[in-house]
């Protein structure tokens, strides 16, 4: 691809030498680079295509990194990376992996934070502005937040606090009329009115929160953006600059289906057709199938998502049961406390969550569901060793959930267990139940008819060594047991604990204590605060030794899942070796 | 006290028989009851005195518990309790303890939730309304939220979602112009404008979020309230009824100092003078004293609170350092992410938190501070076995904090350690540090000159048995050691671990393994996810046995601290007995 203008741009300072014609040409050069790389490696398509002009204008008017641009969520920062010395990661396929999908201070002085959760940018900028004022300097602080991220409570808390500052803060609201899925909530009525009235509507959230406000309709028009930013540069008080952009601009399939192209796996850049199709049923499909059955039996089931219906195929559910489907927007706190209200009134809410975003609702899980013993069901994805970016790391689920009193946490090892657990969770009324969704395609096993929440499942009754394998670790335990049998002549007990928040199966625990010298736990989540530590505490006063294998208490940055599993001794070789040392 | 009108009121149905003259008399009878009991047992003075008329009017117009009133925070629900069959808990000192300070479904069918954290009521009501619609019924759902609680992000998420409902929801905003401390944030400029314009101001947060809106100036005037509620009763869509009340109304000291009387210890009901004065320096004073020293040495220290300056004496700090003091309102997420922004720019933020409210910021602690390794300091109170209400239970601090990667958690046992830890936390730049504030008055010990974050403090070097005592448990360990010496002839090792998020002191750990058969941990927080489990995991593969003593994974309701400490084997008798069983 020829990129004559981009070839002259190695940093923001080079943009200042370009005229509007060049800047437009630059945008036209960047878009194909984005699409080409995205088509090969996947990523956030729509968000990045929508902010090409916005990013060019910001870097033309402001002086990054002296002026500080903070990208909310930061999944839309590709053009920012291209313009700040990292273009090779798009122009040269050999260097595609040189940069991550989010901002990362280790990558560039133009990045300030690792960010992968939404709605934090304004709060971060509030702090940066106060620190700047304390040291008496005057640079511009510019958080850039999408309209989807505005629905998160932290954005509101930060807007309200921004209004109390008396110095420069330029809050750019990138309004592309979309959350991850379509927008949900009264907030978006107000934003739509502002767009329709060129910013003149009476109902103005930002003004109601005490902030100065400016509207820019031409969010993909470089001259409009340059004019707006030039006007607010070095302003002496906080202001919201509300900019109307088009998500997915420049790639027809992404413009036509904004939700489907928010994030996309590798695709044919001509047609937009995904390179791999998966028509097999997933574990989420097992859940949805069971919910259909429950509804057919007149159960008052309600499905809730905080703006991530796609991963759970919830649009299928919504089409069938529109009055039972609630996308609350990016608002995880609301998703859980809303479920609490539903459950108190006898409905059966099922909240579909991603574990890393569910962290936003920790207090709601404890205070609203836990204390109140309300039977909401939380089906969550992502509880596993993920590799990749620490902002989406999935190893903290059990440390977060299993220590909340009254929260029953279930870790199905297969589809049969998953369905049995869900049936149980929806018929009991004792309290909240979290179910960790296995990953990948679901097998077609029949229902686990023996499921009992208070009993572990003994897969093999052996002696000497016991392997307690959490959910997905069951195949590993089976393989390790084979090796222990073959190499060491040990007939290891294999147990699927099924429930991991508490050790309540006294019969099985007594047998472990009576017949075993070593109890090993295997879990692909943080050892600190996880399941294994509960087992070690239990056996601590006894003669039974314990070995907890699992993830370190650490944010992982660049390692792959395979590398991490090896380091964490969660492969057949490494786990067997660790156990043999204690035989 | 004569209460001729109240004598005729045993439930909301009796209010319907009273005329306005009677209802006003009823308010005049209730206030002295509130003040008298509050003066003897302490409690939320201002919030309850402000809503006497509001509560009477709600129960006169609506039909609780068919109609559902949900009190946000629920610390203002005393009159609600008086009017719904629980008046004896105010009229008869023998029955003062019959009811709790918050709503609790176990107490009455007029309560729906245990609530003690703010900003949840609208989200709960959203869920209740949807459940009602699903079952096809039509009762009124009425969350009552104070203006202070409106600053929490969950309230905003819930308002925006409420606007998408198409059925009855009556959101009463009780605007008394105050958070716990004075209001902070642009939100409150908007509310003030609404009050000043009788609800006509252009800048209307509620309308901007897509909601219908009605203003009632006479929030302590029964006829105004009756008229307003009668008008909105059975409304077919969500509406905000914004009511202007006077916090502390009817008790002169509380009217004169609204912040000081938000919550108050027992006092002389004539003068308002507290029955017990405490002039001794607290641990919070030690922190503030150290911050003064740091600022005198030109450290860019910034103090942050989420609307609870009182417990930390932060108003003293604010008076001395107004440009370094930030009360972000009830907005714990903001308090932490704001600190992240400050720290990234080189300031030294110190966030003063209460552990139970800090749960709101779990994701911010992890994603914004933890991943980014930002050196913010969190000084928090309340980490202990509290007794009393589960919504303010303090035993979850270590399970919340110590499993977040990169979060150093320190548990000082005395003022000398506290100051040394704070000095260290403010000079290091490796990452966030949480310091659990001891309770009570601070001794005047000199600085702990030996403090090293990577070394445990060995208080007594013994053998056989080691006692690892977290913070406040050190005196217990000393006493238990005496008993073990006297009764069993064991010279127990006593260790103050100082740092509880990780076991990094390899020398001491090696000595424990070499010379000890039993390692006992003592902590007044949840065993599940806490410090002891980390110790049990560490020694699990060895011959050393472990015993973890601490709080159960349970929400405690009515037990006292003493009862709980006995149950948790954290008294000299119980702990010694538990240990002796393993000798």
Class derived from helix and strand content of chain A: alpha/beta
Strand order of the largest sheet of chain A: 7-6-8-9-11-10
Within the CATH hierarchy, at the fold level, what is the topology of the largest domain in chain A? Rossmann fold
CATH superfamily of the largest domain in chain A, please? Thiamin diphosphate (ThDP)-binding fold, Pyr/PP domains
Helix segment count of chain A?
24
Distinctive features:
583 residues; 15% strand; 24 helices; Rossmann fold; THDP-binding (chains A, B); globular; five-stranded parallel sheet; 1-deoxy-D-xylulose-5-phosphate synthase (chains A, B); six-stranded parallel sheet; 16 strands; alpha/beta; homodimer
Write structural notes for this entry.
2 copies of one chain form a homodimer. Chain A is an alpha/beta fold. The first copy, chain A, folds into 3 domains: 251 residues, Rossmann fold (3-Layer(aba) Sandwich), CATH 3.40.50.970; 154 residues, Thiamin diphosphate (ThDP)-binding fold, Pyr/PP domains (Rossmann fold, 3-Layer(aba) Sandwich); 124 residues, Rossmann fold, CATH 3.40.50. In chain A, the strands form 3 sheets. Chain A has a 6-stranded parallel β-sheet with strand order 7-6-8-9-11-10, sandwiched between helices. Chain A has a 5-stranded parallel β-sheet with strand order 1-2-3-5-4, sandwiched between helices. A 5-stranded mixed β-sheet of chain A has the order 12-14-13-15-16, with helices on both faces. In chain A, helix 14 links the parallel strand 6 and strand 7. In chain A, helix 7 runs parallel beside helix 8. The longest helix of chain A has 22 residues. The model of chain A has no long low-confidence stretch (mean pLDDT 96). Chains A and B meet through helix 7, helix 8, helix 9, helix 10 and helix 15 of A and helix 7, helix 8, helix 9, helix 10 and helix 15 of B.
């Amino acid at each position: 691809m020829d990129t004559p203008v981009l070839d002259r741009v190695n940093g923001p300072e080079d943009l200042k030498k370009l005229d509007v014609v060049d800047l437009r040409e630059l945008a036209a050069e960047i878009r194909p680079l984005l699409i080409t790389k995205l088509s090969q490696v996947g990523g956030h398509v729509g968000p990045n295509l929508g902010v090409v002009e916005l990013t060019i204008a910001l870097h033309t008017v402001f002086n990054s990194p002296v002026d500080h641009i903070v990208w909310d969520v930061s999944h839309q920062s590709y053009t920012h990376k291209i313009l700040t010395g990292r273009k090779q990661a798009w122009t040269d396929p050999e260097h595609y992996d040189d940069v991550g999908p989010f901002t990362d201070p280790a990558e560039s002085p133009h990045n300030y934070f690792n960010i992968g959760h939404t709605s934090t940018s304004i709060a971060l900028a509030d702090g940066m502005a106060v620190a700047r004022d304390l040291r008496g300097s005057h640079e511009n602080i510019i958080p850039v937040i999408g309209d989807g991220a505005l629905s998160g409570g932290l954005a509101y808390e930060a807007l309200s606090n921004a209004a109390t500052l008396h110095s420069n803060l330029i809050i750019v609201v990138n309004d592309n009329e979309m959350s991850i899925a379509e927008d949900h909530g009264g907030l978006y009525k107000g934003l739509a009115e502002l767009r329709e009235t060129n910013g003149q509507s009476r109902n103005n959230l930002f003004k109601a929160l005490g902030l100065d406000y400016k509207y820019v309709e031409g969010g993909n028009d470089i001259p409009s953006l340059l004019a707006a930013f030039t006007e607010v540069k070095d302003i002496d008080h906080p202001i919201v600059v509300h900019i109307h952009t088009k998500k997915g601009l420049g790639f027809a399939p992404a413009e036509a289906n904004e939700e489907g192209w928010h994030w996309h796996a590798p695709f044919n850049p001509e047609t937009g057709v995904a390179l791999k199709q998966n028509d097999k049923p997933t574990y989420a499909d097992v859940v949805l199938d069971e919910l259909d059955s429950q509804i057919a039996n007149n159960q008052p089931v309600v499905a809730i998502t905080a703006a991530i219906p796609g991963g759970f195929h919830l649009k299928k559910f919504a089409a069938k049961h529109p009055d039972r489907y609630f996308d609350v927007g990016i608002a995880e706190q609301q998703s859980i406390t809303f479920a609490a209200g539903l459950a108190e009134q006898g409905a059966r809410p099922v909240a579909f969550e991603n574990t890393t975003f569910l962290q936003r609702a920790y207090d709601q899980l404890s205070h609203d569901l836990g204390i109140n013993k309300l039977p909401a069901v939380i089906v969550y994805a992502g509880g596993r060793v993920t590799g990749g970016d620490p902002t989406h790391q999935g190893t903290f689920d059990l440390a977060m959930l299993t220590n909340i009193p009254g929260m029953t946490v279930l870790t199905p090892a297969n589809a049969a267990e998953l369905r049995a657990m869900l049936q149980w969770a929806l018929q009991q009324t004792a309290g909240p139940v979290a179910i960790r969704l296995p990953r990948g395609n679901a097998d077609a096993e029949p229902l686990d008819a023996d499921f009992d929440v208070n009993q572990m499942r003994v897969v093999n009754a052996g002696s000497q060594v016991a392997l307690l394998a959490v959910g997905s670790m069951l195949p590993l335990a089976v393989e390790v047991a084979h090796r222990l049998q073959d190499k060491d002549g040990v007939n290891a007990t294999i147990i699927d604990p099924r429930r991991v928040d508490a050790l309540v199966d006294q019969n099985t625990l007594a047998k472990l204590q009576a017949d075993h010298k070593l109890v090993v736990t295997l879990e692909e989540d943080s050892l600190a605060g996880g399941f294994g530590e509960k087992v070690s505490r239990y056996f601590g006063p006894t003669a039974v030794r314990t070995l907890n294998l699992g993830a370190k208490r650490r944010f992982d940055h660049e390692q792959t899942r395979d590398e991490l599993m090896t380091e964490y001794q969660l492969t057949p070789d490494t786990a067997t070796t660790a156990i043999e040392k204690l035989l």
